[in-house]
Amino acid sequence: MHEVEAKGILSAQNGMNIYRGCTHGCIYCDSRSTCYQMKHAFEDVEVKINAPMLLEQALRRKKKKCMISTGAMSDPYLHLETQLRLTRRCLELIDQYGYGLSILTKSDRILRDLDLLKSINRKAKCVVQMTLTTYDEKLCRILEPHVCATSRRIEVLNILKEAGIPTIVWMTPILPFINDTEENIRGLLKECRMAGVYGLLTFGIGVTLRDGDRQYFYQKLDEHFPGLKERYIKVYGNAYELPVPKEKELKKLVRQECEKAGIQWRTKELFAYMHRFEDRQAGEQLTLFDISGKNS
Description:
Elements: E1 2-4, E2 15-16, E3 19-20, E4 46-48, H1 51-61, E5 67-70, H2 81-84, H3 86-96, E6 100-105, H4 114-123, E7 126-131, H5 137-143, H6 150-162, E8 167-170, H7 182-194, E9 199-201, E10 206-208, H8 213-224, H9 228-236, E11 241-243, H10 247-261, H11 267-275, H12 288-292
Parallel strand pairs: 1-4, 2-5, 5-6, 6-7, 7-8, 8-9
Antiparallel strand pairs: 3-4, 10-11
Helix pairs in contact: 1-3, 3-4, 7-10
């Protein structure tokens, strides 16, 4: 790791990334792509050491409360967070100033901050997004080697359910010829239903590959799935979007099962939900969409 003094922390859309780079080791990670112009080794995580100070300044300046989001580019619960506690300090500020939170992770370290998640959710709204890609535990250990297994993430979702915190699952990416089976999809959908998730995001059924990400992914295919890289090249060439062969059938399966379970699956509606602030202290009521959106 290395520390930097950042100049700002919130994007125009009120998103933040406290860390840059990752130590989870997921073989498909888009954040490795060279288009993001990272000037350091991906595992040499850049730490925005002044993130809490910058966030407090930004929250004080805002004229209107909103949702603050984090986790889109780098997981806020990396291994470093255990000692550095920068994510927790930022959550304390979000809670203190009465803002909402939308947070994306694939780590059970988020449970350390359950007290803050519940407090934020009482005052505004806290939405926890959890990535689930692979129902099979052995395969999960190959695809996502340095983060808690799928079974543990499912436990986290159920704990959040008991705490009254809404959750959204990112069931992405689904890798062609690896985890693109109906068995895998049905297994994940079953757990989402049992955990009472609010929504499920897929962005289509497949994976995207760009320069930087593609090379690392192919290196790992050679290591764990000999011969599969050549199959990818034959089928997809240098395409950016790599839909699975049965994308149409699997998308239909996801839609049907989500509708039966009352899980919102429409991407536009889910992002609208994550960005919509609710001032619960002021007695703001849920909108009609919030009440019925899961079955729309």
